[in-house]
Write a structure and sequence with these properties.
This protein has 405 residues and is an alpha+beta fold. The protein folds into three domains: 75 residues, Beta Barrel (OB fold (Dihydrolipoamide Acetyltransferase, E2P)), CATH 2.40.50; 55 residues, E3-binding domain (Dihydrolipoamide Transferase), CATH 4.10.320.10; 227 residues, Chloramphenicol Acetyltransferase. It contains twelve helices and 19 strands. The strands form five sheets. Strands 9, 12, 15, 16, 17, 18 and 19 form a seven-stranded mixed β-sheet that branches. It has a four-stranded antiparallel β-sheet with strand order 1-8-6-3, with no helix packed on it. Strands 5-4-2-7 form a four-stranded antiparallel β-sheet, with no helix packed on it. Strand 13 and strand 14 form a beta hairpin. The protein is globular and about 80 Å long.
Length: 405
C-alpha cells in the first residue's frame, strides 16, 4: 500500500511551509514516527514525522515551498525493513574506512584536477569573457567542478596582491528568518517607537541568590536566575501602568488584565520568542521552571507555534551575549519590550560615598502612539525599584515563603 504523506497544518493562519532539510534519502526505509524532515513556517521550525513504516519516495526538494495539505512524499508500507542489510553495511563500512590515508588523498587530487581544468561549457565561456584563469577558481560543483555560478562570482586578477581569501557564499534565508526580518521592518515602519533607559543596582539580587540559590535548586530542581526577578518586576510594573500592557487594533486600544510574557530565546534556527502564560500567577519557582522548559524546547527544535503565539509584553536578554546597551525592537502587535544587558561592576554614589556595585543598564522600547512618556518612564522606574528592593516589593518581606523554601 502506498501512503501519501501530506503537509500538516502547523497552526492557525499558516498556509504553506518550506522544506528546510530532508533527514532521510529517497528510497530509505523509515520507521513510524521517525523524523524525516525539518520544515520551516513563518513562525517556527518543526519536525515532520513519518506516518507509517516503509520505503520512502521524496516528492519535494529542499528549499521548496509547499502548501499545507500538499503531498511531499510517498511511503510504501508493504516494504519490509532490511534487518540483515544494516549489520552487513556496518561491517562493510568499517572495512572501507581502514585505509584512511588513501580516502583522504583521493578527493584532494580530484578537486585539484577539476579546479584547474574541468568546468561546464557556460562557465568556460564566462571565464573567457572575464579573463579569469580557471586555475584561480575554486569549484563548488560535484568533485570540485567549476559551475556557472562560480564563474559569475569569480573576480579576475588585476595584478594586485590580495593577501588573503576573498571568497563569498550565498544561501537562501529560511522562511522563519525571512518572517522575522519582515516583522522587524514592520515594527520600525508602523510604530512610533521610542526607547528610554535606566540603570539597576543588582546588589540586592546578588545577595539573595548567593544566600538561597543552592537551597532553591535543591528544593525545586531549577536555578534561581535573574529571569524570575525581572519577570515578576515586569508583572508588578504592568499592574501599575496598564497602558504598557496594551496594543492597538485598528482604531481601538486593547488592554489586557493578564500578563503573557514573551521571552526572546536564541535557538538553532534563529531567534524564537516563546510565551510564559499568566505570569501574574507564577511564583519564582514557577517562572524559573517555565523559562527552563521553553528554553530547552527551543534549543532542541521542539517548540510549537502555539507556544510562541500571543504575548502581551516581551523581555529580551542581550546581556548573555555581552551586550552593554541596546535599543530592542518591539515585537508586534505588542507595545513594549524590556531589554536586559550585561552586569558590570561600576563606581556609583551611595549616601555621598563612591562604592563599586554590580550595575545593569536596562532599556524599554515602547509604542509612543498609546504609551506616553509618563507611563514609559514610570514603568521602567517601577521595574528598577522592584529589582533594587526585591525583598519588600516582590517577596512581601517573606523571602522563605516567596521562594517556597
Amino acid at each position: 500500500m502506498i501512503l501519501e504523506m501530506k503537509v500538516p497544518s502547523p497552526g492557525e493562519s499558516i498556509t504553506e511551509v518550506e522544506i528546510a532539510e530532508w533527514l532521510v534519502q529517497d528510497g530509505d526505509y523509515v520507521e513510524k514516527d521517525q523524523a524525516i524532515a525539518e520544515v520551516d513556517s513563518d513562525k517556527a521550525t518543526l519536525e515532520l514525522p513519518a506516518e507509517a513504516s516503509g520505503t520512502i519516495t521524496l516528492k519535494a526538494e529542499e528549499g521548496d515551498a509547499v502548501a499545507v495539505g500538499e503531498v511531499v512524499c510517498l511511503i510504501d508500507t508493504s516494504a519490509e525493513a532490511p534487518a540483515g542489510e544494516k549489520e552487513d553495511s556496518k561491517t562493510e563500512s568499517k572495512k572501507e574506512e581502514a585505509p584512511e590515508p588513501l580516502a583522504k588523498e583521493e578527493p584532494k587530487e580530484t578537486k585539484s584536477t577539476y579546479a584547474t581544468g574541468s568546468a561546464s561549457p557556460a562557465a568556460k565561456k564566462i571565464m573567457a569573457e572575464k579573463g579569469v584563469n580557471p586555475s584561480e577558481v575554486s569549484g563548488t560543483g560535484k568533485d570540485g567542478r567549476i559551475t556557472k555560478e562560480d564563474a559569475i562570482n569569480a573576480v579576475p586578477s588585476m595584478g594586485t596582491p590580495s593577501g588573503g581569501n576573498r571568497s563569498s557564499s550565498r544561501s537562501k534565508m529560511s522562511m522563519l528568518r525571512r518572517k522575522v526580518a519582515e516583522r522587524l521592518v514592520e515594527a520600525k515602519n508602523t510604530t512610533a517607537m521610542l526607547t528610554t533607559f535606566n540603570e539597576v543596582d543588582m546588589s540586592p539580587i546578588f545577595d539573595l541568590r548567593k544566600q538561597y540559590k543552592e537551597e532553591f535548586k535543591e528544593k525545586h530542581g531549577v536555578s534561581l536566575g535573574f529571569m524570575s526577578f525581572f519577570t515578576l518586576a515586569v508583572v508588578r510594573a504592568l499592574k501599575l501602568f496598564p497602558a504598557v500592557n496594551s496594543m492597538i487594533d485598528g482604531k481601538e486600544m486593547i488592554t489586557y488584565d493578564f500578563v503573557d510574557v514573551s521571552i526572546a530565546v536564541s535557538g538553532p534556527k534563529g531567534l524564537m520568542v516563546p510565551v510564559i502564560r499568566n505570569a501574574e500567577n507564577l511564583s519564582f519557582r514557577g517562572v524559573e521552571a517555565e523559562v527552563k522548559r521553553l528554553a530547552l524546547r527551543a534549543r532542541d527544535g521542539q517548540i510549537t507555534v502555539d507556544e510562541m503565539t500571543g504575548g502581551t509584553f516581551t523581555i529580551s536578554n542581550g546581556g548573555v551575549f555581552g551586550s552593554m546597551l541596546s535599543t530592542p525592537i518591539i515585537n508586534p502587535p505588542q507595545s513594549g519590550i524590556l531589554g536586559m544587558h550585561n552586569i558590570v561592576e561600576r563606581p556609583v554614589a551611595i549616601n555621598g560615598k563612591v562604592e563599586v556595585r554590580p550595575v545593569m543598564f536596562v532599556a524599554l522600547s515602547y509604542d509612543h502612539r498609546i504609551i506616553d512618556g509618563r507611563e514609559s518612564v514610570g514603568f521602567l522606574v517601577a521595574v528598577k525599584e522592584a529589582l533594587e528592593n526585591p525583598t519588600e516589593l516582590l517577596m512581601d518581606n517573606d523571602i522563605k515563603r516567596a521562594l517556597e523554601l
